[in-house]
Amino acid sequence: MPIVVDIDVMLARRKMSVGELAERVGITPANLAVLKNGRAKAVRFTTLAALCEALDCQPGDLLRHEPDEEPASRPEAGVPGTR
Hints:
Layout: E1 3-5, H1 7-14, H2 18-25, H3 29-36, H4 45-55, H5 59-62, E2 63-65
Antiparallel strand pairs: 1-2
């Protein structure tokens, strides 16, 4: 998946445990682990905002985009002007 979740990085910088973050955000440690390990398919903005507040960071500190490698000759479906 091209979206990478860097919660581990922020946890290390803040010297905070997964359990402590989960408690501050109001989600279960298991659900936080799903997000942290990149297995989540979506994240609510309210959860993202709570993570940012608890970790004193911006959304871009937690999420980044790493495009998948695709052949340059294959146009994107439904997107005009791309290849």
